[in-house]
Design a protein that fits this description.
This protein is of the alpha+beta class. The protein has a domain of about 170 residues. Helices cover about 45% and strands about 15% of the residues. The protein has twelve helices and seven strands. The protein has a four-stranded mixed beta sheet, sandwiched between helices. α4 packs across α6. It is globular. The protein starts with about 25 loop residues before the first helix and ends in a 10-residue tail after the last helix. About 35% of the residues are buried.
């Protein structure tokens, strides 16, 4: 916004400091949340005062955080021709968090959708605003990444919880829904630490085989599979290991490193 309308580029005269969402350790220290509470209620410190009244908490997140960010912050950054469409993209992206959904398939569910370029542009704006991102498929050939279907990933799990009709108690007893919450929490933890850790986050999929998260730093590759709730096949991990020879392979969840412990780890240390 400062640069708009100025002749000066400001190049070399400012430092960009990125402040991500609060991590579990920070929320736990300040508010005493458990891992399960953090996975559901996320890392918005201002919303913690309303946790005991979940209905009020949801309204606060939707009105004071989501609506304010999309309607004001994003629209102030750039000109949006179809703000209602961007809100639809956000809602659907949150609903499909931790899942792969192509832009083409989204077009069939959105009103006045335009084309895939418009959806990708709005997703980029939501990413910059700290709300939602789309992970690209991991390829050795870099030029192929942009052509892949995105894996939708919220940057704060409070966004998912606020937009669902389920309560914390209901979601935690639904193995499928809770599995999506945990995988979203792990994904948010990875991407929020990515800039600080100087690594990139991808997913990998080939036919019916999939690896939830692939971390890349320099020439080092780490594959991470999240298993929570229902049993998931690890065939994708086995295939990925044989094809790309990652430095590390981690199983997070019921039969590996517990997801609660993973939220306390700085992912950058995995490359040590």
């Amino acid at each position: 916004m400062i640069q708009q309308g100025l002749n000066e580029s400001l190049a070399g005269r400012f430092e960009l400091l990125k402040i991500p969402h609060w991590y579990f350790n920070e929320i736990n220290t300040c508010f005493g949340l458990t891992h399960e509470q953090y996975a559901w209620f996320g890392g918005y410190p201002g919303a913690m005062a309303f946790m005991k009244n979940e209905k009020r908490w949801k309204e606060y997140v939707k009105n004071s955080l989501i609506e304010a960010t999309i309607a004001k912050d994003v629209l102030m950054l750039t000109s949006i021709h179809k703000p209602a469409l961007m809100k639809q993209v956000f809602d659907m992206g949150v609903h499909y968090s931790a899942k792969i959904l192509s832009y083409t398939k989204m077009l069939g569910h959105l009103q006045d959708a335009g084309n895939t370029v418009t959806i990708a542009h709005y997703l980029n704006l939501l990413d910059v605003a700290g709300l939602l991102t789309g992970l690209q498929k991991f390829y050795i050939e870099k030029h192929r990444e942009k052509s892949s279907s995105p894996k939708w990933q919220i940057k704060n799990t409070a966004l998912f919880s606020a937009l669902t009709n389920l309560s914390f108690k209901q979601a935690s007893t639904d193995s499928i829904k809770w599995g999506q919450v945990i995988e979203s929490a792990i994904g948010a933890h990875l991407i929020n630490r990515a800039d600080e850790g100087n690594y990139e986050v991808y997913y990998w999929r080939h036919k019916n085989e999939e690896v939830d998260f692939v971390l890349v730093k320099d020439e080092s590759i780490i594959a991470i599979e999240v298993k929570s709730g229902l049993t998931k096949s690890t065939w994708g991990m086995d295939t990925f290991r044989k094809k790309y020879h990652p430095a590390k392979v981690l199983l997070v969840g019921t039969s590996g490193l517990c997801w609660q412990e993973f939220l306390e780890i700085n992912p950058e240390r995995l490359f040590d």
